[in-house]
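Pilot study result, target chain (148 residues):
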Amino acid sequence: MFSRKLLTISVLLLVFVAIFLFFSQQKEIKEVIVRDKTFSVEVARTRTELERGLSLHIPLLNDQGMLFVFTKEDFHDIWMKDMLFPIDVLWIDSNLRIIYMEKSILPDSYPKIFSPETKNLYVLEIPSGQVDFLNIKIGDKVKFVKSS
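Predicted structure:
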């Protein structure tokens, strides 16, 4: 009886350790590179994070952004609810290509909704003016840099 309980506890402990190791080795995206410019990004994945985005956030520096990571490709849209500063927005597909973009979206554009005509998996919000400054184009490839 005692050895059976010990075996059960040992197996449960082993499963817990395996799950912990698996998730601790998952690397998080920390930077996005677009046209040789590296943006340090905050990543939004949960429903709350995806809905909140940069609302009430302090203005981004020229090398900062927010990357929205969705669970499936779809027509993901954005709005400027409670935004304090303008942004450029890039919609990115599963092949890491820019499929649509909006430049210099102003906070007072709310409640207008911005949406691509093609399904996307990611949305990258960067400081207003960066699309023009970097000459970013539809079809440009982006690269994700994960934490080590």
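One observation from the pilot: The chain has one domain: 28-146. A full batch analysis is planned for the follow-on phase.
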